[in-house]
Design goal:
The chain has helices at 21-33, 51-56, 67-76; strands spanning 12-18, 38-42, 58-63. The protein is an alpha+beta fold and 89 residues long. It has a single domain, classed as Alpha-Beta Plaits. The chain starts with 11 loop residues before the first strand and ends in a 13-residue tail after the last helix.
């Protein structure tokens, strides 16, 4: 049997919360283009009820060890304000 080295599974943390999936996906692309692992999570009942995203939001997650770098990338990106809302604590 061949042994395969597996990467450790990262701890994921919420970087921003968006109202719309497409906004989260654009920012995710920017982060991934900078080498940051990212993923989105949103509950819209399998696209049957998109309004749920407005209520619950679409979360953009990054690996915990890349959080600081991801924040730097968003703050350095052109625009008036950083996209999305930071998670409330």
């Amino acid at each position: 049997m061949r042994h395969v080295r597996r990467r450790p599974v990262p701890e994921w943390v919420v970087l921003r919360i968006f109202s719309y999936q497409h906004e989260a996906e654009v920012v995710k692309s920017v982060l991934e283009g900078s080498g940051i692992e990212a993923m989105t999570i949103g509950d819209d009942c399998g696209a049957l009820d998109p309004a749920l995203s407005l209520v619950r939001g679409v979360r953009l997650l990054v690996a915990a060890d890349q959080l600081e770098r991801a924040e730097e990338i968003l703050l350095s990106h052109p625009g008036d304000d950083p996209p999305g809302e930071p998670p409330s604590e």
